[in-house]
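This part of the workshop introduces the protein records we will be handling. Backbone structure tokens are a discrete shorthand for how the chain folds in space. Once this layout is familiar, the rest of the handout is easier to follow. The record below serves as our worked example for the rest of this section.
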Amino acid sequence: MRMFGTLLLAAWTLLLLYVSVRAATVPAIVRRVPRPLLAAFAAALWASFAAGRLFRGDSGGSAAALLELVGMHALAVFFILAVPLLAVDLVTGFGLLMRRRAASLRGWALAAGLAMAGIAFVQGTRPPGVSTHEVRLADLPPALDGTTIVALSDFHLGSLLDGEWLAARVAQVEALRPDIVVLLGDLLEGHGAPPRALARGLAGFRAPLGVFAVTGNHEYYGGRGEAVRFLEEAGVRVLRDRWVELRPGLVLAGVDDLTSRRRRAVAGDFVGAALAGRPPGATVLLSHSPLELERAAAAGAGLVLSGHTHGGQIWPFGYLVRLSYPQLAGRYEVGGATVIVGRGTGTWGPRMRLWQRGEIVRVVLRAA
């Protein structure tokens, strides 16, 4: 986490410098805003982000949380602003070509970036959409044809998304009348003890065959054991490298977050352990991170449900995420297994999304 925080602060510093320096060359800004004032504004933004990261979860309390909230949204806005600015710089050779027009083109780039940031704010605050998939499983008994799973992931409940937001998601899921509800990790932001009110909110999820969850990387940040106890107190069954038979012929398995294990250099066949010794029938595997998918398919999982990627959350960041997670969002076929990666029901960091809003995944199982 320290390394991640350092990289995040470095990225923020570079983005802030790049956008500020380019903005200072735009004629409309130069005429109206003195450069010392622009520099002071940039310095204040940088300091708010740094202070929020430094004191998060510590004695800073609500003041630190507010600073981090402002800083994370500023980071997202400046990232979006940097995209069209960089496009203009590439076209104009960073101002060496088209000298007379380069500065005005940067002004149009800033306007386009601000428009995209506005769209991202709107998309980030909209309720998540519901995507429906029908998946045929070779070993599913005909009596279980039509069994419906509703999958949610990446709530990041905490200072930004609270009990009111969670209650709306419970109502949204209830309207879908699922047989099984699965929560695919990163349900908690992971900084400090989760409020008890959130446990009552999670307890609102109900389904005839049960409510199940797996851990995500953010559950590790706050202490995996504490997060698991919190979920179990809410009536959620956490599948940690194990399986349960929901009905004869239908097995649900779950694996602890593979990304966290990879970062901590913990080796082992965790997918194989989660699927070992299960009875015959169709198998659905829950894995927060879409990793080791070929291994899951080879071990007999007919369907894998994942999250973690947020679909990139803010375009074009998804192109970088895809380097580590080729299955970024949507439906894939891997080694004979169907893999569905949700875009995330909530948001991480800023409550912004560009271009797609959050997602709840509804899966209808069909017998072959």
Q: What stands out?
A: The first strand starts at residue 129 and ends at 137. The chain has a mean pLDDT of 91. The chain has two domains: 2-124, 128-367. The chain is about 45% helix and 20% strand.
